[in-house]
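User: Can you help me understand a structure? I only have the sequence.
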Amino acid sequence: MANSAGSRKRARQAVKRRARTMALRSMVRTYVKKVHAAVATADYDQAQSAYTKAQPYIDKMVNKGILHKNAAARVKSRLNARVYALKG
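Assistant: Let's start by predicting it. Here is the structure, written out as tokens:
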């Protein structure tokens, strides 16, 4: 356990920060799962709208430092490929 006042404060901040980070990461994962579910129904319009809703949240997590920019780009690329596979 931390001994100095500064390190105790850092420990408290880390707990709060981790809780916030995990909540945001969970939210993004939920949006990604919604896109996968829409793709599974083979309905292009529904999948496209789910992807359109998920995309800004993925980008926001990059700006907040929750996701790495390349990881976010990879997720968006794979989701987009699945959605457009339904179109053709």
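Now, to help you interpret it: The CA atoms of residues 14 and 23 lie 14 Å apart. The helical segments are 5-40, 44-64, 69-87. Let me know which part you'd like to focus on.
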